[in-house]
Amino acid sequence: MLSRRRSLGLLLGSGSSLVLGGCALDGWSGTVGAATQPLNERVEALLQRRGTVPEFDRRQVQPEALLINSFNGTPRIEPASYRLAVAGAVQRPLRLDLAALAALPQRECVIRHVCVEGWAAIVAWSGPRLADVLALAGPSPLAGYLAIRSADQYFETWDLASALHPQTLLATHMNGAPLAAGNGAPVRLASPIKLGYKQSKWVTGLELMSRLGERRGTWEDQGYEWFAGL
Amino acid sequence: MSVPSAVSAPGPLRRNPLWTRAFHAFNLLVLLVMAASGLQIYNANPVFGGREGATVPALFTLGGWLAGARDWHFGFMGLYAANLGLWTCLLLQRRHRRLAAAGDLGTLRASGNAPKRRLAAHRITYTLMLIVLAFSLISGLAMYKPAQFWWLVSLFAFAEPAGHPSWQVLRVCHFATIPAIALLLAVHVGLSWRIGGLRLLRAMVF
């Protein structure tokens, strides 16, 4: 009986040291990610080709559930002097003011905004489609990626297919009211097919690119997944 | 003496086939990775209490920070799913007598034969473990791709009339697979020990 007890103790002991070993394994996270993310991202992109995402009813929005994240404070942008630069692999580089964005067809999307941290909130975003804004500039057929610059120096890059998705908006309004400063006023990205950290706030520049550069994104360069599809 | 007969029975040790031992060991290893990295993800925004909620001690977590934990969690989810799926298929095809049957509940209720009752209880525990593991995969998939698998998320909308949004219910359910599997694991280890002792352990592990 004693030897059995001892073996059981040994088994439990080795089990808990596996848990303890977790600390030593933390350094391997990046290696595991590098080995598995390319395949995961491919599968994610394949899944995403299935058209529009079903939307929620306006009555389902959860204003209190939408938390505010910012990596570098809250920039205050004067609406009258605001310009959105559209540049890069385009036929006509543009600088659009808010009136030009408001003149485009407006679309409202009631979608679930999902944060990488785990929380989510149903939000009604409205504004022009990102695809319509990019079409004004005449994208080059070579363009495959979009870089997004923000007033707070936040940087993002998207695959063009996700940027052109019919529910990806350059939102100027949230839940029926103009965007608040904390939520990205006057213009932010909103999309049901990407995690929250892809949805830049205080957007001031769009640049079409034929390939990804060194910088992939503020958080991506720290180790977060680039595709980040939902 | 109440030593189970399997322990005192003489004769050479009959080991489980290699595939059973391999799936079993790999499942345990991957489960530990998924649970520990899942608890690290939990800490980014605790399911209970949000940003003010209590976090899990670093001892039980894997990844170091949110992005590292996601590397592990999504790096191993495919292996976890493939291992569990293949194993369940092989069990159903070749070892379905290890899985619970309707008679096991009757045995538990009516039989006075203690070893028989333990065997029935163990088969139910074992089958429940497979069900909980499969549920962790389904609820995890719903949270990983809520836009593509919106219909999976909507399965968790049952408590919305009571004021619990489907997303929160989904998070609670996915998290609940950890205590559920820990409990079943304890019962599984305890019952295996009672039924087969060190001999069963050796047949399964070494």
- Alpha carbon gyration radius of chain B: 20 Å
- Strand line-up of the largest beta sheet of chain A: 2-1-11-5-6
Q: Which sheet architecture does the biggest sheet of chain A show?
A: 5 strands, mixed
Task: Give the distance, in angstroms, between the N- and C-terminal Cα atoms of chain A.
Answer: 54 Å
Largest interface: A-B, 49 and 42 residues
Just name the CATH architecture of chain B: Up-down Bundle
Separate helix tally of chain A: 6
Q: How many separate domains make up the residues of chain A?
A: 2
Number of strands of chain B: 0
Structure description:
The complex is a heterodimer of chains A (230) and B (206). Helices cover 26% and strands 23% of the residues of chain A. Chain A has 230 residues and is an alpha+beta fold. Chain A has two domains: 1-47; 55-222, Sulfite Oxidase, Chain A, domain 2 (Alpha-Beta Complex). Chain B is mainly alpha-helical. Chain B has one domain: Fumarate Reductase Cytochrome B subunit, CATH 1.20.950. In chain B, helix 2 runs antiparallel to helix 7 (166-205). The longest helix of chain B is centred in the last third of the chain and has 40 residues, at 166-205. The radius of gyration of chain B is 20 Å and the shape is globular. Chain B starts with a helix and ends with a helix. Chains A and B meet through helix 1, helix 2 and helix 3 of A and helix 2, helix 3 and helix 7 of B.
